[in-house]
Design a protein that fits this description.
4 strands; 4-stranded parallel sheet; disordered C terminus; single chain; Aspartate Aminotransferase, domain 2; alpha/beta
Length: about 90
Amino acid sequence: MPIFITHRSPRDRGIALCGAKLVVVNSVDELESAFNERTAMMVYRYGEGGPVKLEDAIATCKRRGVPFMLDGAAECPPFERPKMLALWR
């Protein structure tokens, strides 16, 4: 089952461990042509600014009925900073 990403990272290993085949797409055209009946989802890391714009990736997956996961974990503030914690709540 293919899972689309826009670039490789060390965290990809966790996705691949579930048995998925990672497919790197470098443009919206590549994304469009990579879909098939077994496509599981697309994983996009927030703020990556890669070759496929966030809006285009969401629209393409929505049009195809494929789940889209936006990974924003890196945007979580460090909780050891009380000032940031106050903004977080």
